[in-house]
# Entry
Amino acid sequence: MAAKKTVTKKTPAKTTAVKKGTDKKLNTLEKKIGKVPKFFRELTTKEPEMFNLVMRFEQHIWDDGKLSRKTKKLIAIAIAAAMRDQHAVRAQLAGAKNLGVTKAEVEEALRVTFLLSGMPAYVYGKAQLDEVMP
# Structure
């Protein structure tokens, strides 16, 4: 005879505590990177284990190491511009403001994008920059 699997139900207090912890993680992430995409917010309830793994990975990537968060953010902006991904550029620019990245620093990073990805990527990134950081 197979053993019965015990199912534990979360109490309302425990569910509220988990939600508050998740909300705090999302708010912290938003301060770092800008607007968190809807699909990622949905992971908190649909795939909480996946959400926690991604958050751990994200923390590992963005923590200061040999490169500062500010430098990593400039790299992310340049990559997003090279990909011509409007959402990613805007999200990275919003997060850059929170890290104290200046418009001049972003413009310099976009010049590197121009060198390696061409004029369209530079123009695309510059247009987003002028909207987000006038």
User: Anything to note?
Assistant: DSSP finds seven helices and no strands in the chain. The two ends are 70 Å apart (CA to CA). The chain has a mean pLDDT of 83.
